[in-house]
Design a protein that fits this description.
The complex is a heterodimer of chains A (399) and B (520). Chain A is α/β, with parallel strands linked by helices and 399 residues long. Chain A folds into three domains: 84 residues, 2-Layer Sandwich (Ribosomal Protein S5, domain 2), CATH 3.30.230; 239 residues, Phosphoenolpyruvate-binding domains (TIM Barrel, Alpha-Beta Barrel); 49 residues, no CATH class. Chain A contains 14 helices and 14 strands. Chain A starts with a strand and ends in a 9-residue tail after the last helix. Chain B has 520 residues and is an alpha/beta fold. Chain B has 15 helices and 28 strands. In chain B, strands 4-13-12-9-5-6-7 form a seven-stranded parallel β-sheet. In chain B, strands 14-15-16-17 form a four-stranded parallel β-sheet. In chain B, strand 22 and strand 23 form a beta hairpin. In chain B, helix 7 crosses helix 8. Chain B is globular and about 70 Å long. The chains are: A alpha/beta (399), B alpha/beta (520). At the A-B interface, helix 1 of A face helix 7 and helix 15 of B.
């Protein structure tokens, strides 16, 4: 074990984070030094938290330096714990009380139009993520976290699952690529995560491993809530196996990651997306066949909202139900454009009205003008109406 | 002489002095309660025969001009801040005063900036006794620590005009930078080598000061027209190599913010204005600079285009964004007191609908009406608000003075004043039980918009009614505060001494609050 443990970030551009350095000493008790821009207001509470945590881990003598940039308690606690775990061997976890909003669980069929990626080791982005009203937030342990920061990120993400209010967004975590991702589950599953994203998924067997591990943890900890899975297909092989993956237990949505996929194909990603047309269609097809939600890749030019809109419209026309986002301003564009448009709503209203009328009259066949309407068409129209009402595009008393 | 003496509790419940820097002052009596009846200041009556027949008032140096203006101990010197953080002239004036061995001057800038840091040495040495004007940056810090010999005096832009006009603040010598002037002192800020825009903050000074010196780096042939300063009001003209750096006017607040959290605040403001019915064709509104305010105007613009509306007028601080809107036919008139972007200067110069206005027209409380009061909506930033809708824009929660009042108080007179703030900054809640410094009484703040919800002042039953089915996140301010406190934790109260270092004047000239010395 290291002699000095250090975790977190500090610097001029850092906000809502802190860097903690702990050195064990032989005597003299706990010497806590705090450098903080909010010292005048929070010195007492930060020092008390640090003491409580160090005592919890059985540390009696140490020098602790906390360099703070306005971190909240859950961040400070995570950084202290990460630093401690570099210098002592322990399985203990220092948990702050979970907020009541974060113990809910989600339904399989809920909206997953937008999911906002939040780098797991960057606390400032998580604080207001829910304010932007994405359908889901993803605390990411994979690509956005530097390899040498994976351990501290996992602790921070665990605490963020318990302490940050996301205002109704589904709480998702993207674990690392397997097998490392299986270890991540230990710190995530017990804390009311709603959905796990499994990156670079290529086979149904990988999903089985994830399910197995989750089941094991749930049994050990007697947890009885559902945890859904969203595999991300990011390779040619994954695309080929996508139907089996989609059919796996607990999988509610199938996402595609196009950056890695195009690299795997040996080509470049273009705006037109000809090179990914097959894969995207295949994902939609597999997901629909398995009766789950097909979810598109992120759109990475955060400054070009018009291009994003075009991308969303293409995505919708291919059959996707949602896509990832990497900037909060993308959320609204995504919701707005995945939602049914005016023409679709008007058409759906006519169909549903005709259907209702036929029901009332006890007619077996539904007709709109001289055209017969099949049952799937009615169902789709009902769905459109439901979406239009839920996205505020149609009054619920439209009839 | 005590800086501040004989404290009483004013109508806002704040302990304020009744004697400031040896002069009697009136404690705040409540909104719209104080009605002065006296006659205002009157300038000394000059006679044209005492001035050169050929109109040429050029003097070789600023030093000579100051000597000829009768600079002596204890005088009051004014400068303006149109070059903002690029001003050279103020520092020169006090360097010269120091060289001449002058003491105890009172400096009344329309605002001071970090570039005026060199004045600190003159405050320390006694050349400058104290400053009355917006204090921020190093000067604000100096004053916060109680190091200024006199009590600081914070006035709003409108309040400064009023103080000069009603005789509360007499200026002995006004030293006015102008980007172009002729030999007679006809001057403006839109011509010459280094234009800085309209000259709203020179009007009271030039009208009421005993002596006015125009300082320019671009002497042009008579007549310098349009003239914002009339040569008839000017005693001396000084031509220097450099008077300021216009590049430093732009302070990074003239671009629409990219911060998603600020954007959502701005968007909620715009949605509120739309849902409440304030947004209408021919709207009049203030369009502040600053990332969030500008973003608000951006969202309003989108709504206006959709509805086929245009604004009758917008009050700037003008920016390129406003000028573009006018060019697109979305605004009929821009009232412009100062520019925040040099790209606007051609429009100010050439477009007759881009009207340069003074502080008197926009903001003065003791005028026969003013433009701010006629505005349908104004969106402002703030350092703190409280559960009684009181607002602070001059100090942070630790009591340190960090900003001037600017037009903040004057804008409170608008038909709807919205304060747009994040609910917390760096773990420090912005919504308090009580603001550290009272700058705007709660009864004048109509709406507080944060990223976590919108709180409407209970006094504005009309706005509450108008937006009740809007689907906007309208919340009780106490709930909002509770939520923020749960996120941040309850901060300890800052340690402030009893010693006052500055007073905050309300728009009518009464004393609203004091700023106390910071302990550390």
């Amino acid at each position: 074990m290291a002699k000095i443990g250090t975790a977190g970030n500090y610097g001029r551009s850092i906000r809502s984070d802190c860097k903690v350095t702990i050195e064990l000493t032989q005597s003299d008790g706990l010497k806590i030094e705090l450098i903080s821009k909010v010292k005048d207001y929070f010195e007492e509470s930060i020092v008390a938290l640090a003491k409580k945590e160090l005592e919890f881990f059985g540390i009696k003598n140490a020098k602790i330096l906390i360099e703070d940039r306005g971190a909240l308690d859950y961040v400070i606690a995570a950084r202290i714990e990460a630093a401690i775990k570099q210098i002592i061997e322990t399985d203990k976890e220092f948990l702050l009380e979970i907020i009541s909003q974060n113990t809910n669980h989600t339904k399989k069929e809920r909206y997953r139009r937008s999911r906002l990626y939040l780098p797991g080791n960057t606390p400032k982005l998580a604080l207001n993520a829910g304010v932007h009203k994405p359908d889901g937030i993803i605390l990411d342990l994979e690509d956005s976290v530097a390899p040498d920061r994976k351990a501290e990120a996992a602790i921070l993400v665990r605490n963020a699952l318990r302490s940050v209010n996301y205002y109704g967004a589904e709480r998702m975590v993207r674990i690392n690529q397997l097998p490392k991702g299986l270890d991540d589950l230990e710190q995530i599953v017990p804390h009311h995560v709603n959905l796990i994203l499994v990156p670079k998924c290529e086979t149904a067997e990988q999903i089985e491993q994830v399910n197995h591990k989750i089941a094991k943890i749930k049994k050990e900890k007697t947890l009885n809530y559902e945890i859904w899975l969203m595999p991300i297909i990011e390779s040619a092989l994954g695309v080929i196996n996508s139907y089996e993956i989609a059919c796996s237990e607990n999988v509610v949505a199938l996402a595609i990651g196009l950056e890695d996929y195009t690299a795997d194909l040996g080509t470049q990603r273009t705006f037109e997306g000809t090179e990914t047309f097959f894969a995207r269609s295949q994902i939609v097809n597999s997901a629909r066949a398995a009766k789950i939600q097909p979810i598109d890749s992120v759109f990475s030019d955060v400054s070009d909202m018009d291009a994003l809109k075009q991308n969303v419209l293409t995505s919708k026309s291919l059959g996707f139900d949602g896509m990832g986002c990497i900037h909060p301003r993308q959320i609204h564009i995504i919701h707005e454009n995945f939602a049914p448009n005016k023409i679709e709503i008007e058409k759906a209203q006519k169909i549903v009205a005709a259907y209702n009328e036929a029901q009332e009259k006890g007619l077996g066949v539904v007709a709109l003008g001289s055209k017969m309407i099949d049952a799937p068409v009615v169902k789709r129209a009902q769905n459109t109406i439901k979406q239009a009402i839920e996205t505020g595009k149609l009054d619920k008393n439209w009839k | 002489m005590k800086k501040a003496d004989k404290f009483v509790k004013n109508a806002a419940g704040r302990m304020v002095p009744t004697i400031v820097n040896g002069k009697k002052v009136i404690p705040f009596m409540g909104v719209n309660k104080y009605r002065p009846t006296h006659r205002g200041a009157a300038p000394r009556v000059p006679t044209c025969i005492d001035y050169p027949e050929d109109g040429n008032k050029i003097i070789d140096s600023l030093k000579e001009a100051l000597i000829k203006s009768g600079l002596k101990d204890g005088m009051t010197i004014s400068t303006h801040h149109h070059y903002r953080n690029g001003d050279y002239v103020s520092n020169m004036v006090f360097d010269i005063a120091a060289e001449l061995g002058i003491k105890n001057l009172r400096w009344v800038p329309s605002a001071a900036f970090p570039c005026n840091k060199p004045v600190i040495k003159h405050l320390e040495s006694g050349v400058v006794h104290h400053i009355e004007g917006s204090l921020n940056g190093p000067l604000g810090d100096f004053c916060s620590h109680g190091k200024m010999k006199g009590l600081g005096y914070l006035r709003s832009h409108g309040g400064r005009y009023r103080a000069v006009a009603d005789g509360e603040l007499h200026i002995d010598i006004a030293v006015m930078a102008a980007s172009a002037s002729d030999m007679m002192g006809n001057a403006n800020g839109v011509m010459g080598k280094h234009p800085f825009g309209p000259m709203a903050f020179t009007k009271a000074d030039v009208k009421y000061a005993d002596r006015t010196i125009v300082v320019t780096d671009s002497l042009i042939d008579f007549p310098c027209f349009p003239w914002e300063i009339m040569g008839n009001d000017v005693d001396f003209v000084v031509v220097l190599d450099e008077i300021g750096d216009p590049q430093k006017i732009v302070s990074g607040t003239t671009k629409i913010t990219k911060s998603p959290d600020r954007l959502i605040i701005a968007e909620q403001c715009a949605k509120f204005v739309e849902a409440s019915g304030i947004l209408r064709d021919e709207i009049n509104m203030q369009a502040g600079a600053g990332g969030t305010s500008l973003a608000f105007v951006y969202f309003i613009q989108q709504m206006m285009i959709k509805k086929g509306f245009k604004a009758r007028s917008m009050v700037g601080g003008s920016t390129k964004f406003l000028v573009d809107m006018m060019e697109k036919g979305l605004i009929d008139y821009i009232f412009d007191g100062q520019t925040f972007g040099l790209e606007t200067i051609p429009a100010i110069r050439d477009n007759p609908n881009h009207i340069p206005v003074g502080v008197f027209e926009i903001y003065d409380f003791h005028a026969k009406g003013n433009i701010a009061r006629m505005m349908d909506v104004i969106v402002l930033g703030s350092t703190e608000v409280d559960v009684n809708f009181n607002a602070n824009c001059v100090s942070h929660s630790d009591g340190r003075m960090l900003h001037g009042i600017g037009g903040f108080q004057n804008c409170m007179l608008a038909k709807c004043t919205i304060i747009a703030v994040p609910s917390f900054r760096d773990r420090i809640p912005v919504i308090k039980d009580e603001v550290t410094t009272l700058v705007a009484p709660g009864e004048l703040v109509d709406v507080i918009v944060t990223e976590r919800g919108i709180a409407i002042n209970p006094l504005r039953k009309d706005l509450i009614e108008a937006t009740k089915n809007s689907g906007l996140p309208i919340r009780d301010i106490h709930d909002l505060k509770k939520e923020v406190d749960q996120i941040c934790g309850i901060p300890a109260k800052p340690k402030l001494s009893d010693e006052a270092v500055a007073v905050v004047e309300w728009v009518d000239g009464t004393i609203l609050d004091v700023i106390r010395k910071v302990e550390k």
